[in-house]
Prior knowledge:
Pfam family, one (chain B): SusD_RagB
Protein name (chain B): RagB/SusD family nutrient uptake outer membrane protein
Oligomer: heterodimer
Strand order of the largest sheet of chain B: 8-7-11-12
Structural class of chain B: alpha+beta
Subcellular location (chain B): Cell outer membrane
InterPro entries (chain B): SusD-like_N (IPR033985), SusD_RagB_dom (IPR012944), TPR-like_helical_dom_sf (IPR011990)
Number of strands of chain A: 16
GO cellular component, one term (chain B): cell outer membrane
CATH class of the largest domain in chain A: Mainly Beta
CATH class of the domain at 35-73 and 99-160 and 170-269 in chain B: Mainly Alpha
CATH topology of the largest domain in chain A: Immunoglobulin-like
CATH architecture of the domain at 35-73 and 99-160 and 170-269 in chain B: Alpha Horseshoe
Amino acid sequence: MKNISYIILFSLVALFSCKKDNYEAPASRLSGRVIFQNQPVGVRSDGVQLELWQRGFSLFTKIPVFVAQDGTFSATLFDGDYKLVRLRGNGPWIDNTDSISVKVSGNTQVDVPVVPHFNLNNVSFNKSGTTITATFTVQQVTAASGLERVNLYLGTTMIVDNTRQDASAEKVAADIVIGQPGTISVTVPAALASRSFMFARVAVKTNGVGEALFSAPHRIEFK
Amino acid sequence: MKNIKIYIGLITFMSVFSACKKDFLEREPQSIVVEDQVYGDPKLIEGVLANLYNRIPTDASLTNRWPEHTAYDDAVWSGSGNAGDEYRNNIISYPVDRWSLWDYGFIRDVNLGIEGVQKSTKLTTQQKDQFSAEFRFLRAYDYFEMVKRMGGVPLVTSPLVYDYSGDATSLQLPRSKEVDVYDFIASELDAIASTVGNNGSTSRANKYTVLALKCRAMLYAGSLAKYNNLMASPITLPGGEVGIPAQRAPDFYNKALDAAKQVIAGPYSLYKTNSSNLGENFYEALTKKTGNPELILIQDFLQSKGFKHGFSYDNIARSLREDNLASSAIAPTLNLVEKYEYLDGTDGTLKTRTPDNSDYIYYTNTQDVFANKDARLYGTVIYPGTSFRNLPVNIQAGVALWNGSSYQIIEGDLGARYTDGKLLTGLDGPQRSALDLSNTGFYLRKFIDNTPLASTRTRGTDIAWIRFRLGEIYLNAAEAAFELGQTASALTYINTLRERAGFGANSLNTLTIDRLRNERRVELAFEDHRVWDLARWRIADKVWNGSTSSPDAMLYALYPYRVVRPGDAARNDKYIFIKQVAPRFKAPRFYQIGNYYSSISQNVLNNNPKIIRNPFH
């Protein structure tokens, strides 16, 4: 009898004293958009990141927040005060090292304004035969920046950029008139010509900046 | 009972008196070697040096970081898939901290060594100078490894000692300018060249090793000064921590060329012992340690003393393995193979299709497609139809069955027979998704030991890792001369190297930078040069642009098939070759401009507010 009561006592201790994790997981969601003139800025998927920093704890290291290709981002965090930093030399916009104070309390929205080097306006696509032509206007936003090239990318999924694409065409800066409508064409690869649709995006790249600014992906119906 | 008490009392009494000596707390420790002992004994100092030589950082070598050979474009990872190594076939983009190196543990050990040697009372002046010089060589080497990854780093030349005052600002040094680090390396190496001694050694630094390091470092500095400033938007920091002024380029190239000329005029010569088989000759030049006049500095191993490694175990061709489990991890790519030119000087692209692309070209033997290629191809890569350790490899992906209008590809198990009784798939593959089997149709020969049982785990191999050899010095000299406009002498250096590879005398009479770069790629493949060369030429982001349609960013395989086409004697049982993206390779290589200078760890930034970040991250 005595033995049994010990066993019960030990089991109770074993069951209740220990939890695998004594912290609640973070539950607040910070989300937002990277915007220019109140429009989201399109980028390469998985390429551009923002940084979140929080002071006051012994571990001081950044929380990288990647920007999705449509210019949105999100992170799940603990409530608290954070600094949102536009990482230098990373996105297709001019460096601005001023941090943005963000108070996360429950689900929080924040927009991150940026000034791109170049912007793309009036982007449209049309298909004739096996050729897809994009019409676009490059707008110089930052006077000091040098235009490198404009690319047209075709892909089979909605995630289309310079690394995930099935066909591309390029126009170097010398062939582009800034502020005037320009066109760029690409031939659909023979292997993909029988598909019923593809996605296309136009990107403008600045000299000395790793990432390009993209237009929104556009679905082109083939049939 | 009574007696026992007396005995115990007696023993206690005796031991108290006998064990105790006056200097009980001041004895020489028996289990550790103290500083004065180390720096009073040349043998122990050599032990300290051996430890440091072994810790010289590399990106890829034969030991702990050997799988990194497959992280670029010379090879595909073809080993086991479950050990966390497969990711090298699927690197979406290189992380910005991939090459990050903040090796101040090494620098501190060197600085303590220099201080210890200088303070020592038991060494002669000559010994002090010699050991100090060797420590300074290692420090310069480590600074070179850091500056090529990080740009300018703090130059610490004496041990930093904390005084426990609560204020560490005196220890917080800012980053030096990138150009100053290269100048520091040059001046250090100049200062020690005459005192370093060790004449004739290949495992310790001597005068020529010092010059070889200087040659490489100055070449890097020269090309950074030139090519960084040719970028549309050069990568710089306002304080010069990153970015070398363009006007320094000729100066650096001149220093590189001078150092190279001195090494070439030294006691070394290209290995040409096996003149009957130039391919084997090149292989021996990389693997033989005795009677090899080409070696300048190696990381040596010695099997008989148990100092060995498993590079051959991991990378031996599949059917030749002598142990179970691993083999074939580093599978060279078709990209590399096609960079080896034909001996008549034409482009090395393999001829697998007729010129009008209407049909395959049919070869009688699998090796015929590689006929008349640069002998260095044989010395670097095991390709279909060749042998290793005098045993033939058996590389055949399957059969191509003619169905009247096109070929149907049939592949099977290793060593399987087709219904006509002849071979279907070779014992060495390639297969599309098998582990520990070549995925590209090629195996590595360079640095693989052909001694019997060297590819077992129990015996292991003691093939040396080559840090510097004369072949590289010739290429450095050629590049520096070419950049200085001395094309004639650049051609002499290049042609000397090409002659050893089977090209005739004076095989080139014009030179372009692309040709020179290609020569560097084929001569120095798998010797930890490729990624650094592309970076210093500032073309890595263009060659590895992350695009699936780029022939350089994607890695290719060559699959040989036996033709089954009864009734067509000109084609039946002949071999055709199909080029394709290596099936296990998933993501194109993507090197971004943020990779040119690696990120500095947040720990370092937090501890020292004077350190500024590198551009782009």
